[in-house]
Amino acid sequence: MKFRIYRYNPETDGRPAMRDYELDLESGDRMLLDALMLLKEQDDSLGFRKSCREGVCGSDAININGRNGLACITPLSSLKQPIELRPLPGLPVIRDLIVDMTQFFKQYHSIKPYLVNNDPPPETERLQSPAARAELDGLYECILCACCSTSCPSFWWNPDKFVGPAGLLQAYRFIADTRDQATAERLDYLEDPYRLFRCHTIMSCVEVCPKGLNPTEAIGKIKDLMVKRMV
Amino acid sequence: MVNRMVTGAHYGLRDWLAQRVTAVAIAAYSIFVGAWLLLHPQPGYDGWTGLFSSNVMRTFSLLFLLAVFYHAWIGVRDIVMDYVKPAFIRLAIHVVVILLLVLYTLWSVQILWGM
After folding, report:
1. Residue among B5, B16, B83 whose CB faces A197 most closely
2. Percent of chain B beyond pLDDT 70?
């Protein structure tokens, strides 16, 4: 199997370069991450992140043949050769396929990704009706792999100001939570030409989400609520 | 000086909504004019002046043009926000675009009612 991999070590290389690799696979090697690990045996200078290797942790998000995805749940059989691997676009490269996620997590933190509830905590837990709980489906599953935000041109142009699809999906996750009491503040924060309204609904985020989530729909629901409270 | 990142202008919804409403107005006018052209394939000078002789058509046309100008303003500002970073140049472009659009509005009135 043929690979072309983005290689860059800012300490020694003047500029990034694509390097070719070839690999003989065995029958047990099914996912792209299996191949990456074998390539690392071949060339231990190759840098990439991985952890759970089953699509839960979101560490191994990379750009695969021009499309963001998780190496661990991308079957090798689905990829055209040579398989071109690059770091997630739009974020600073630390080394090879490893990017600096600081900006991404800054945006995530900016939307206060936690329950705001000023009532005294109950003895056991804050109960929800099944219907209220169902509101969170399609929102809470986000693993913050950054595939969506780094495929969004608005996030490329304004990563410091636009919250990005991942952050906005999480913003709606807390707006939609019946136990949260900060809806008005959350909407106030997002009522901004940059933070929310850089989204022009091109849906690249939906296209790449490895968990099949729909940030565009969540952003639309935030806009609906803003309209509802304005009129 | 440290370059501070500033956001939180607290607008956006109104413009986003206006862009959608003006789009509907533009679509309605375009469909109307398209249909009229299908019914009158070769209107000629008399056909056109006949269509624009009533104040209803002139008002409808002015509303359409105002919708186009407002829609264009929001779109142009969005593009400038993405690609022009220095605040002074951005403000200058905003002023020029607004002045042009106001000029176009006055010009439209002159064209529609000056016949």
Report:
1. B16
2. 98
Q: Are A86 and A63 in contact (CB under 8 A)?
A: yes
| B114, amino acid identity | G
Helices (H), ranges, B1-115? 13-39, 44-51, 55-83, 87-113
Sequence-ordered list of residues with C-beta below 8 angstroms from that of A13, at least 6 positions apart, any chain: A7
Contact B10 A158 (CB under 8 A): no
Q: Computed from CA positions of residues A65, A71, A75, A76, in that sequence, does the dihedral angle turn out positive or negative?
A: positive
Q: What are phi and psi of A130, to 5 degrees?
A: -55, -35
Chain B residues touching residue A227 (CB < 8 angstroms): 13, 17
Interface test with B, best of A185, A191, A225 (most B CBs within 10 A): A191
pLDDT score at A27: 75
Judged by CB atoms closer than 8 Å, whether chains meet at A197 and B12 is answered as yes
What whole-number distance in Å separates Cα of residue A123 and Cα of residue B39? 74
The tally of CA atoms less than 13 A away on the side-chain side of residue A121 is 5
Query: Which residue of chain B has the CA closest to A231?
Result: B14
Residue B5 forms contact with A (CB below 8 Å):
yes
Q: Which of A191, A193, A223 sits opposite B81 (nearest CB)?
A: A193
First and final CA of chain B: distance in angstroms?
Answer: 57
Place of tokens 């679509």: B27
How confident is the model over A100-144, as pLDDT tens digits? 999 999 999 999 999 999 999 999 999 999 999 999 999 999 999
Domain B13-113 CATH assignment equals 1.20.1300.10 = yes
Q: What is the pLDDT of residue B115?
A: 65
What is the rounded CA–CA span in Å between residue A70 and residue B28? 45
pLDDT for B1: 61
| Alpha-carbon separation of residue A165 from A62, A94, A122, A215 (angstroms) | 17, 23, 33, 5
ipTM of the complex: 0.85
